[in-house]
Amino acid sequence: MSGAPIAIIGIGHDGACGLSPAALVHIAQAQVLAGGKRHLAFFPDWQGEKLVIGADLSHVIACLKAAYRQRKTVVLASGDPLFYGIGRLLLEAFPRDDLLFLPHVSSVQLAFASIKESWHDAWVVSLHGRPMQALLPALQQRAAKIAVLTDAHNHPAAIAHFLRAHGLADYTLWVCEELSGPGERITYWTPESIQQQTFSPLNVTILLRQAPLPPGEQGTCQDTSGLSPEALPLLGLPEEAIEHRQGMITKRELRLLALCYLALHAGDVLWDIGAGSGSVSVEAARLSASLQVFALERSAPALAHIEHNVRQFVLTNVHPVLGEAPEAFTLLPDPDAVFIGGSGGRLAEMIPAVVQRLRPSGRIVMHCITLENFSLGWDLLRQHPLQVDTTVVQLSHAKPLGSWHRLESESPIFILRAVKL
To answer: What sign does the CA torsion over 80, 86, 92, 97 have?
Structure first.
């Protein structure tokens, strides 16, 4: 019996010559050598059983389990096996004491070294077998450096198209192909210049925001958002960061309370009724790219503000809808949570329609300025199988009074909240 752990060895495009003496000893002693076809091709003279790692990973795991206790087994993997590699799968399938990892330099490390950029502050996003929307969290935060692991569908030109579609022309792309191999190529592109280009499928693409153009390149990169991304908080956007009609915006503190009471979860559907500027929609959508937010607004000028804010914050999970509630509810999927910021005087029709569509355990949050709307909303909600509660909030802010200061109070806001039983 072998008794030795499975050695998982990271390997680069330079093959065996890039491996440590310890890694080479493990391979020389192995009786079973597993790896992709490209990895195994680095050892044409190796004698023993070769196991090709292909698409059927469950078959590979079963073969490894059957072999490793009887025969010395080595698995070859690209770069660092624990960095978006097979290492995670092996850790799930085998006891940790039965695994030994000998990593190589990762492709992301090599890519940043190739373009002479530090990467301790970079976002790393894998699009390998994932939707392009996986880029959104990094783009929404306007990350200065993003390393992207690509695949045949999400190739560099497709990434550039995604950037252009969201108005992010201030990102430039370094495409790092076949790093450390004989076909290594490092090229620099703007989102416009890369459109018709093709690349080796073995590439890492690095997005740099407001990167300086290399000598000989023409044009400039401009921040199209009109904001200073570094100055924006993760939660609680200042009102001046959101396009809106004067005074027609849910105040930051009230937005945060609304989000707290809405109790959103990843994957939820949120209706923002009477969305106005869309401030609640924007704030909610930035919490998770998997949220689906429907901003319903009956005013076309207000909807234009919502659409601008959606583009500005790169939020593909916010869907502006022009329509009147409750008739426009037929255009929307059933919600897990509903925020009512405006009712247009139709609260008596709106509440029953919302409750009917609300999913079990769904939440309703409603802001009321007037006593009449609060009283009507309270009565209407209590007519349905809901757990109803309310909170009154009155914000006060310091204002100068000569050389002194006083507190100036705003009108109180009644917050109705309900949970479907």
So the answer is: negative
